[in-house]
């Protein structure tokens, strides 16, 4: 959802905004002038004087000064005694500011801070819930370990407070207290247990947050509240919802065995309790908070049965709608969308047009991810959409922006790999057509980038074609090579020329049938202009010559063996000399050996580059000996594995980051770095599914079901959301509506009433101040904080396939392939 | 579990923090963070990873009105939680100090900001973030000024305790998003629907996709606890239609979702007090996309501004022309001010800082038409630039051309042209001028002639460019080069008030049941529409 701030920016005209900016600036200046109270105008003494004044207004003014310098980052610890003196002030504002100050500096002045504890403790019994809540918050926030027991007791008291606001504050005080002194854990978990079963959903939300920090492994506490949590989910505030969804996702992994498919049609039986949770999640899909939407996506993604999209289909729309949020949120959502669609690529197919890009408006990290989405879903799209995407990519490939050009050419390459049976050939042909046009047209400003990238991609496509060896794949590859060879006449860029020559050597040099002639012919033409070529191209020409020659030698050998076989049936042993004579004669007359000799013995021998001369020498010596022909052909014609262009974010999938986590985002953002292999500090993956038979019985969750829908608690207004309880509540509200006009019978008890009636009794209760019992019952869990399940990630396997392939190529003597343009990644 | 360590607000012009607030102990000082932020490449990701600090920091950042909000986190966290929280902080600060949020407003109200931040987040966990709930907890600066601004010191105690008691007793008002004891002398309800249109249009004029994302913002100033019912309808009217039109609705927590599901288009809710965003939605402006290129009837998209581009004009093909026309808007919307409408048009009577729409005119008027033309980085200057109207300037590789739209949606008056030639940088400049030069020797490529023979352009060109049989190959080459430098897309910006691209309408807004509202008081109601171009890209 758009934030209000952005909307109002849209509503106001620019003129109004500047006007107001100017006004406020001048007003600020005037105010400072009038009061003569610029931030620096006040000395320490004066501030002290203000703080020690008897007049509240002056104290407040003094506090303002302190706050000002505090928030600007300067050190204000010198005012500590003067500020703390005001801790007992009856005025709420002063109290608050003193508390804020106290939280900041208590650690550095523990002794003085302790002096204020008594006053704060007294505030715990104030009749104003706001003051009680503030007191518990500030007490737990003071980082002085001595007071941990007092804090623990205060928490205990506040857990049973009348006001939900105080109870919520108490819930959040629990992690603070735990950090202060882990020894209090026993007492704290007890309190947490109480709070998890609280009637007010606001308290429960905070309790879950605390639970996740303090003792996420103690799921025993959750069992009996599980159903209550599920039911309350809709009623909570967004942060509470977030925490509960996170908790229950972990809970579900640990307490329900993984759902397995039964039969073919994706039928499965899900534990009704798990289903309850997932169904309740569905009710949150209209939430305005993107974090909530994402956490539901996480729950659906990691809890649904393998390969089932029953639940995931519900989340796609809301996830896509996050793209209309401000760019930062859209970016994070896209990362999650990509990571989900890596395992379910067809899921977002119906929203394909949402992932079309506008690079002139979007930052590059956004359109890159969108482009990745396009290629991921490409195989699952209908034909018109596919062609739309290809057209788009081609358009961008002709642009000025190098990055955009590179990415779109690569995207085309990925589209070409489409594996869906229908129209695979067509898609690949179309992609190749687009790329060929890019190479030959050579018009784009991105020039070099386009050509270099396109050729890499073309090579990939051809190689995978040739590898397929069926349905005329090879033939088609040959056709492409011929086209490319023709493009040599016009292509000027050295890198592009080199790539093309390599391709010709690789795919046409094999010398089956007429193809051998193409390579030889290309070689003939290239030999003419050898001297004018750049070094890289010359290297490729020499390589081509060697390949062509090897092919020729092999062909000849074959022929000879055939002849020999034919002759051998007649008369053995004789005529070898004849053969050799023939051979020699052929070697000196056949154009291929002639060309080869010309290139390797003449041209490259006197080349200026010693690298090239060395290489030529290698080929020469290798090929001069007929014995080593076989070795040479192994070297020069080694089969290369068909490369596969991976989606850029694919490695993230392997690492298995949890959807919505920062580790995932970093993994996508930074590629390999990804915040280290263990993810961001504190990252804990989801637990593995509990094994069947080891789960907790269903009965555990039956006990102590929380009755909600008691309208009185929330004061009569309940969001109708279709929950069983909710419906009742709606009825109640409706009834209330009609009743209201009829004279207000049966008014639900609002909180005001609650407080009015119970305020006095709350006072009485809170007299029991020092209970010294709870102090001994701890010492049980010190270091339970982490049970890091360190996921071993096989580092070795993560190397890109391309690299392996390059290694192989290098090994096979094709040194120059490495100069085929590769990503700079 | 996730938590937010601190919040730093910087003015984008300085490196000393305007405000620093820490919820947890932070080991990395803010100046390290801001320098890491400033040194990160733009466009920036909202999540930066700083591995050099100890422990490594995740730095979340958003910007708003020249203010930079930084929030460092040192352990695993849901990125969206932090970002949503930061946006909430901006919202709340704007709510308290009125829009726009300026550095001066923060500087002048540190004590209020401090209280707000303390309330919004406790120990790194978002605590109370609902603006209305915060109003109960933290006294807005204006009121505080009233209490303590008085010269006499004595009555303060009395007054403030009064305020304190009035706020504290309701600290948890019955409705979490509505502050308690709302009283207004004038009861008013305003609905503002704003749609942001994004679209891409192929050179042929065929829209590839077009969407409008709408936001329903409300300003509610009603005493007591009113229960409202807002009925929206799509272009054709009727509920079924609404559901088809409006996609992916997102609601403020106050909206009863069951009601919407049963009867789409009906929003039943108890509103927060003041300004808030009630809902947002999305409308596909091309409801039946037929993407086959052969389709004769291309989907219709009504935009208030039409643009025509002619490229490669002039002797050397180095000029281009952009022609802008305003379209008469499709009818149907205009009658929202007719007597049959349930609302009188809201004219004036709105406080400062409220949107000022041209409420008096019946016809929706196109305003703020801006044409932005990104140009190739190799273009040095523009030559012979002529415009029939408006003013233009060329900066950082883009031309922006503002066209004043006087005379409303008068089609004849709405015509404007812009024609310019381009001059390229000298070739030797180019390698040094381009930012990332990974490939060398590219001038060899860009100089090669023979562009485009035998190749079909993918998009049918708007203009039929005829290749003359030029004898001079150089001219040919030059033309080809210029052709490659022609603009590739144009961005159109406009604002239309009183019109929604999707045709969504407010049918009615009723106070179903108002607890605390005096009987017989009829709140003043007003509805306003506006459409804004968010990213309308026309390819060429």
From TrEMBL, chain A:
In what ranges is there compositional bias, type Acidic residues?
573-586, 761-812
The record's family statement is: Belongs to the adaptor complexes large subunit family.
> By its UniProt entry, which SUPFAM superfamilies does this protein fall under?
ARM repeat (SSF48371)
Q: Which residues form the Clathrin/coatomer adaptor adaptin-like N-terminal domain?
A: 44-626
Query: Any signal peptide, and if so, which residues?
Result: none
Asked if the Swiss-Prot or TrEMBL record annotates the protein with the keyword Transport, the reply is yes
Q: Provide the Gene Ontology terms for cellular component.
A: AP-3 adaptor complex; endomembrane system
Please note every region of biased composition (Basic and acidic residues). Answer: 560-570
Could you tell me which residues belong to the region Disordered?
Answer: 560-587, 733-825
Q: Where are the transmembrane segments?
A: none
Quote the subcellular location field of this record. Endomembrane system
Family annotation (Pfam families): Adaptin_N (PF01602)
What name does this protein carry? Clathrin/coatomer adaptor adaptin-like N-terminal domain-containing protein
Q: Identify the keywords attached in UniProt to this record, alphabetized.
A: Membrane, Protein transport, Transport
Gene3D superfamilies recorded for this chain? Leucine-rich Repeat Variant
Q: Name one GO biological process term.
A: vesicle-mediated transport
TrEMBL record, chain B:
List GO terms (cellular component aspect): clathrin adaptor complex; endomembrane system
Principal place where this protein is found? membrane
Entry keywords, A to Z:
Membrane, Protein transport, Transport
Q: Does the record bear ATP-binding in its keywords?
A: no
| Compositionally skewed regions (Acidic residues) per UniProt | 430-445
Region annotated Disordered, chain positions: 327-364, 428-472
Q: Where in the cell is it found?
A: Endomembrane system
Q: Where does the record place the MHD domain? A: 186-539
The domain of life for this entry's organism is Eukaryota
Which GO BP terms, alphabetically?
intracellular protein transport; vesicle-mediated transport
Task: Give me the stretches of Low complexity compositional bias.
Answer: 327-340
Protein's UniProt keywords contain Protein transport:
yes
**Member of which family?**
Belongs to the adaptor complexes medium subunit family.
Q: What is this protein called?
A: Clathrin adaptor, mu subunit
Q: Which organism is it from?
A: Terfezia boudieri ATCC MYA-4762
């Amino acid at each position: 959802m758009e934030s209000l701030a952005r909307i109002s920016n849209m509503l106001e005209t620019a003129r109004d905004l500047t006007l107001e900016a100017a006004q406020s600036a001048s007003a600020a200046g005037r105010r400072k002038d009038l009061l003569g109270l610029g931030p620096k105008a006040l000395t320490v003494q004066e501030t002290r004087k203000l703080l020690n004044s008897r007049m509240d207004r002056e104290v407040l003014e003094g506090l303002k000064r302190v706050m000002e310098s505090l928030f600007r980052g300067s050190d204000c610890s010198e005012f500590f005694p003067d500020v703390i003196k005001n801790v007992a002030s009856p005025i709420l504002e002063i109290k608050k500011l003193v508390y804020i100050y106290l939280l900041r500096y208590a650690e550095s002045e523990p002794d003085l801070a302790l002096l204020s504890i008594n006053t704060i403790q007294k505030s715990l019994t104030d009749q104003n819930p706001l003051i009680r809540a503030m007191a518990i918050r500030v007490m737990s926030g003071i980082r002085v370990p001595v007071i941990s027991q007092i804090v623990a007791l205060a928490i205990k008291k506040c857990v049973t407070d009348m006001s939900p606001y105080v109870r919520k504050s108490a819930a959040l005080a629990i992690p603070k207290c735990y950090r202060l002194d882990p020894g209090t854990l026993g007492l704290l978990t007890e309190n947490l247990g109480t709070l998890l079963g609280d009637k007010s959903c606001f308290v429960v939300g905070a309790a879950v947050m605390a639970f996740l920090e303090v003792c996420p492994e103690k799921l025993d506490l959750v069992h009996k509240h599980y159903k209550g949590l599920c039911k309350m989910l809709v009623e909570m505030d967004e942060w509470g919802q977030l925490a509960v969804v996170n908790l229950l996702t972990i809970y579900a992994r640990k307490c329900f065995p993984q759902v397995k498919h039964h039969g073919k049609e994706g039928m499965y039986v899900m534990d009704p309790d798990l289903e309850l949770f997932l169904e309740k999640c569905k009710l949150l899909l209209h939430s305005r908070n993107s974090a909530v939407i994402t956490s539901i996506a996480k729950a659906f993604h990691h809890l649904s049965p393998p390969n089932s999209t029953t639940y995931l289909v519900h989340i796609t729309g809301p996830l896509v709608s996050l793209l209309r949020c401000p760019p930062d949120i859209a970016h994070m959502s896209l990362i999650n969308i990509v990571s989900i669609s890596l395992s379910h690529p067809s899921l977002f197919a119906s929203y394909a047009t949402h992932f079309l890009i506008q690079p002139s408006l979007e930052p590059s990290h956004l359109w890159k991810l969108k482009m990745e989405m396009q290629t991921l879903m490409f195989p699952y799209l209908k034909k018109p959409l596919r062609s739309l995407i290809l057209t788009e990519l081609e358009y961008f490939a002709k642009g000025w922006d190098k990055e955009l050009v590179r990415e779109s050419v690569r995207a085309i390459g990925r589209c070409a790999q489409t594996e869906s049976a229908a129209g695979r050939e067509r898609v690949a042909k179309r992609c190749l057509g687009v790329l060929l046009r890019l190479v030959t047209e050579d018009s784009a400003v991105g020039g070099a980038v386009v050509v270099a990238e396109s050729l890499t991609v073309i090579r990939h496509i051809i190689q995978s074609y040739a590898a397929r060896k069926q349905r005329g794949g090879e033939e088609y590859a040959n056709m492409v090579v011929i086209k490319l060879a023709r493009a040599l006449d016009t292509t000027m860029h050295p890198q592009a020329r080199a790539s093309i020559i390599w391709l010709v050597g690789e795919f046409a040099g094999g010398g089956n049938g007429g193809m051998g002639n193409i390579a030889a012919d290309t070689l003939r033409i290239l030999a003419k202009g050898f001297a004018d070529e750049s070094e890289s191209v010359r290297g490729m020409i020499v390589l081509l010559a060697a390949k062509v020659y090897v092919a020729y030698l092999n062909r000849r050998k074959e022929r000879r063996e055939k002849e020999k076989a034919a002759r051998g049936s007649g008369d053995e042993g004789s005529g070898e000399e004849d053969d050799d004579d023939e051979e020699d004669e052929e070697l000196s007359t056949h154009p291929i050996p002639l060309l080869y000799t010309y290139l390797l013995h003449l041209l490259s021998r006197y080349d200026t580059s010693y690298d090239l001369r060395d290489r030529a020498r290698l080929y020469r010596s290798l090929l001069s000996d007929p014995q080593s022909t076989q070795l040479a052909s192994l070297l020069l014609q080694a089969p290369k594995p068909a490369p596969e262009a991976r989606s850029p974010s694919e490695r993230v999938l392997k690492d298995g980051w949890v959807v919505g986590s920062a580790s995932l985002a970093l993994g996508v953002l930074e590629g390999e770095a990804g915040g280290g292999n263990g993810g961001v500090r504190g990252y804990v993956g989801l637990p593995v599914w509990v094994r069947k038979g080891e789960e907790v019985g269903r009965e555990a969750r039956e006990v102590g079901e929380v009755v909600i829908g008691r309208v009185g608690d929330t004061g009569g207004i309940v969001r109708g959301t279709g929950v069983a309880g909710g419906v009742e509540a709606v009825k109640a509200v409706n009834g209330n509506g009609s009743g209201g006009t009829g004279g207000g019978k049966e008014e639900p008890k609002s909180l005001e009433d609650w407080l009015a009636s119970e305020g006095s009794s709350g006072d009485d209760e809170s007299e029991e101040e020092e209970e010294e019992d709870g102090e001994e019952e701890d010492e049980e869990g010190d270091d339970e904080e982490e049970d890091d399940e360190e996921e071993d990630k096989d580092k070795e396997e993560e190397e890109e396939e391309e690299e392996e392939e390059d290694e192989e190529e290098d090994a096979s003597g094709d040194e120059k392939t490495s100069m085929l343009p590769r990503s700079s990644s | 579990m996730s938590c937010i360590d601190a919040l730093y607000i910087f003015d984008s012009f300085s490196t000393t923090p305007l405000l620093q607030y820490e919820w947890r102990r932070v080991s990395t000082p803010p100046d390290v963070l801001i320098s890491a932020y400033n040194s990160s490449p733009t466009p920036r990701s909202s999540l930066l990873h700083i591995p050099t600090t100890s422990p490594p920091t995740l730095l979340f950042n958003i910007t708003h009105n020249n203010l930079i909000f930084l929030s460092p986190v040192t352990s695993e966290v849901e990125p969206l939680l932090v970002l949503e929280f930061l946006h909430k902080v901006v919202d709340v600060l704007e709510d308290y100090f009125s829009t726009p949020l300026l550095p001066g407003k923060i500087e002048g109200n540190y004590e209020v900001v401090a209280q707000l931040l303390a309330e919004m987040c406790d120990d790194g966990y978002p605590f109370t973030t609902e603006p209305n709930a915060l109003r109960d907890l933290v006294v807005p600066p204006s009121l505080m000024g009233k209490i303590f601004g008085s010269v006499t010191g004595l009555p303060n105690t009395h007054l403030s305790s009064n305020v304190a008691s009035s706020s504290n007793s309701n600290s948890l008002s019955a409705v979490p998003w509505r502050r308690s004891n709302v009283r207004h002398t004038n009861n008013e309800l305003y609905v503002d629907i704003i749609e942001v249109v994004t679209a891409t249009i192929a050179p042929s004029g065929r829209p590839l996709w077009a969407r409008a994302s709408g936001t329903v913002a409300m300003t509610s100033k009603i005493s007591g606890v009113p229960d409202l019912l807002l009925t929206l309808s799509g272009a054709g009217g009727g509920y079924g239609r609404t559901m088809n039109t409006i996609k992916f609705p997102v609601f403020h927590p106050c909206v009863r979702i069951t009601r919407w599901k049963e009867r789409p288009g009906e929003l039943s809710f108890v509103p927060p007090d003041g300004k808030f965003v009630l809902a947002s939605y999305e409308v596909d402006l091309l409801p039946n996309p037929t993407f086959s290129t052969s389709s004769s009837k291309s989907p219709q998209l009504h935009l208030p501004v039409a643009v025509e581009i002619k490229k490669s004009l002039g002797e050397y093909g180095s000029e281009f022309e952009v022609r802008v026309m305003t379209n008469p808007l499709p009818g149907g919307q205009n009658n929202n001010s007719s007597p049959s409408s349930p609302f009188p048009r809201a004219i004036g009577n709105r406080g400062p800082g409220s949107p000022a729409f041209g409420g008096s005119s019946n016809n929706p008027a196109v305003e703020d038409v801006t044409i932005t033309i990104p140009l190739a980085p190799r273009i040095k200057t523009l030559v012979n630039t002529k415009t029939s109207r408006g003013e233009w300037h060329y900066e950082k590789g883009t031309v922006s051309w503002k066209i004043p739209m006087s005379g409303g949606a008068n089609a004849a008056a709405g015509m404007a042209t812009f024609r310019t030639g381009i001059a390229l940088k000298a070739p030797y400049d180019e390698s040094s001028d381009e930012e990332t030069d990974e490939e060398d020797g590219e001038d060899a490529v860009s100089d090669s002639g023979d562009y485009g023979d035998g190749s079909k352009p993918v998009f049918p060109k708007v203009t039929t460019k005829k290749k003359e049989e030029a004898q001079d190959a150089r001219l040919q080459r030059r033309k080809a080069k210029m052709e490659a430098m022609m603009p590739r897309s144009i961005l159109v910006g406009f604002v239309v008030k009183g019109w929604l691209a999707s045709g969504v309408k407010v049918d009615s807004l009723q106070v179903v049941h108002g607890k605390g509202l005096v009987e017989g008081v009829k709140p003043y109601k007003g509805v306003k529409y506006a459409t804004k171009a968010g990213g309308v890209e026309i390819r060429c």
